[in-house]
Amino acid sequence: SRRIEVVDTTFRDGQQSPLLFDTEKYRFTLEEKKLLLAGLLELGVTHVEFFSPVVGMAEERDVRELIAHAKALTGRELRLLAHCRCHPDDIERSLEVGCNGLNLYLGVSPLAQRHNAQKSLEEAVALASEVIRSTRARHPGLYLRFSAEDAFRTPKEDLFRLYDAVAPYVDTLGLPDTVGMAEPEDVTALVCALRERYPGVDLECHFHNDRGLALANVLAAVRAGVRYVDASIWGLAERSGIPSVTGVLFNLSKRHPELAEQYQLSQCYPLNVLMASILGTLVPYTEPVSLTNRTHTAGVHQKAVLNEKKVYEAHNLHDFGVDKNQLLLGPLSGWNLIYYYLKEVEALEISKEQAKEIAHEFKRRTHEIGRSKKPEELLLELAQSHGIRKHA
Ligand code: HCA
User: Fold this and answer.
1) Roughly what angle, to the nearest 10 degrees, separates helices 184-197 and 214-224?
2) Does the beta carbon of 46 sit less than 6 angstroms from any atom of ligand 1?
3) How far, in Å, are 33, 97, 348 from residue 230 at the CA level?
4) Distances, alpha carbon 339 to alpha carbons 58, 137, 336, 351, 368, in Å
5) Tens-place pLDDT, residues 189-235
């Protein structure tokens, strides 16, 4: 049966993320890339996309080194892909540095044609099909994918015109939502149309998150029959990015339990933490596989979770490597957490009645929290003023 594969593009679209500028990093160092690559391979990712070497000398050197590093780290078969224009130079240099597959692209949406390709539809179709046909002739076994950039703003007849011309020579047709236009229903419709028209060709999706719909669109695409899903660590990519590798695996594995055999899902959270340590920021709070999703702040939630985690933790994040949860002591906490905190964490001899009294005062004085005190300091101060002592 069709095996779903994540295609990681942290080293390509990921390096186009504005977050690399916000953090004044601009690009990952080779050492950082090696660490990230090792993390991806440990998770079981086998498809990794790089810039084509024509992007610059530093990237060219890194791609060479990373390909050697990847082969040294694992005996598994890897698809090491170069993101390439339909340009013979890009193609030859990508193969020369050791890539064993090409992710080719060209846009024929009215805007892309006018501003990028500066070619008529017929010229663009002729260029793509000629370059891809001759690449296939020269490299019969090479993995070739072709994407029509901005597919969702391309009139369907133009998209078909282009894909009809290249489909005989490629393994996979890509479906990029370059500027985050699509809704899940649009995705379903286009994937179904492409599957019907090109039954022998695999499909790949590359969805940008401008509307916050990228992950929902991935779910729709896979349900409709897409095989390859582009993602990156944290979803880093141009503008607001694409789906994160771990968010994709976390969500897809609900309907596709076989992914738990294909991937080491417990490596998801460590991979997100690795990126956090490289960027020097926290794992984003919008990331599904995060400690944030096992953190509780409201008194009602904290009380319930103290007795039964499942009440407010519906997903088994433990399997994805988030092996603890946390209840944050703060202005919204009630006596249950205060009792738990003073008794279990601070090892104080305290009754439930005392905890309720302290909780009452704690609530009254929450305006001090964050100004002059941390919640823990205020609570210990109150416990002391109630004469509460450590266990003997
Ligand atoms: C871009 C290119 C791309 C490529 C997607 C693909 C896009 O930066 O414009 O190769 O499938 O989103 O169209 O990232």
Assistant:
1) 30
2) no
3) 18, 22, 52
4) 57, 73, 5, 8, 20
5) 999 999 999 999 999 999 999 999 999 999 999 999 999 999 999 99
361 neighbors 380 (Cβ within 8 angstroms): no
Distance 199 CA to ligand 1 centre (A): 23
Closest residue by Cα to residue 30 from 64, 74, 78, 6: 64
Q: How far apart are CA 339 and CA 348, in angstroms?
A: 9
- Do 154 and 117 form a contact (C-beta atoms < 8 A)? no
Pairing mode of beta strands 47-51, 172-177 = unpaired
Q: Buried b / exposed e across 64-99, counting CB within 10 Å, b at 16+? A: bebbebbeeeeeeebbbbbbbbbeeebbebbbebbb
* Distance (Å, whole) CA 226 – CA 238: 22
Closest approach atom of ligand 1 to CA 238 = 8
Yes or no: say if 248 and 241 are a contact pair by the CB < 8 Å rule: no
316 φ/ψ sector (left φ>0, alpha ψ -120 to 50, else beta): beta
Is 238 touching ligand 1 by the criterion CB < 6 Å?
A: yes
pTM of the complete model: 0.94
DSSP, collapsed to helix, strand or coil, labels residue 343 as: helix
User: Could you report the per-residue pLDDT of 335-390, keeping only the tens digit for each?
Assistant: 999 999 999 999 999 999 999 999 999 999 999 998 899 999 999 999 999 999 88
Closest ligand 1 atom, residue 179 Cα: 12
Query: What would the pLDDT profile of 161-191 be if each residue is shown by its tens digit?
Result: 999 999 999 999 999 999 999 999 999 999 9
Cα separation of 126 and 150, whole Å?
19
